[in-house]
Write a structure and sequence with these properties.
With 168 residues, the protein is an alpha/beta fold. The protein is built from six helices and five strands. It is globular. InterPro entries: Alpha/beta_knot_MTases (IPR029028), RlmH-like (IPR003742), tRNA_m1G_MTases_N (IPR029026).
């Protein structure tokens, strides 16, 4: 991964001497691998997308879990990985949501979002993996890996927690 704990340490140190600064809003894209969402979850996601649009453009992209109906778990993860990587541009700043990622609080998440605006990235892509996690290509491509909780979350719940943190 291109970004490590040093970014988070810098963010925490800067917090104590933070002065308001101009930040270029970076478009946000959320890539979620999984089954079709319930109507209730989709309504909440749509509501957050509308709220976020006052600050930056935001897109919600759903990728079907196991797109080639592989019977083998490894093949399923590879197929999902290929589908996700096909939607990521070279100049995207990629955040992989993973149960083993860095544990950020709301303030660190907000500061991370602010700092990405100064990296030159054209878009910020958040990736929520399928039922068996992320593939190797995405793990190598991700700029940072974060976790939303110490507990494993259902993909729909993870999406809602992420949306709340982005809006916060």
């Amino acid at each position: 991964m291109a970004i490590s704990l040093s970014l988070c340490s810098n963010i925490l140190r800067q917090r104590q001497t933070h002065t308001p600064e101009s930040v270029r809003p970076v478009p946000i894209r959320i890539l979620t691998v999984g089954k079709k969402r319930s109507r209730g979850v989709q309504l909440i996601v749509d509501e957050y997308i509308e709220k976020l649009k006052y600050y930056c453009s935001a897109d919600d992209i759903q990728i079907r879990s196991n797109p080639k109906n592989a019977r083998d778990v490894k093949a399923q993860v590879e197929n999902e990985d290929t589908a996700v990587m096909g939607l990521i541009r070279p100049d995207d700043w990629v955040v992989m949501l993973d149960e083993h990622g860095l544990d950020l609080g709301s303030i660190q998440m907000a500061e991370l979002l602010r700092d990405v605006g100064n990296t030159g990235a054209s878009r910020l892509s958040f990736c929520i993996g399928g039922p068996y996690g992320h593939g190797e290509q995405l793990r190598k491509r991700a700029n940072i890996s974060i976790k939303l909780s110490s507990m494993v979350l259902n993909h729909q719940i993870a999406l809602l927690v992420l949306m709340e943190q982005l809006y916060r």
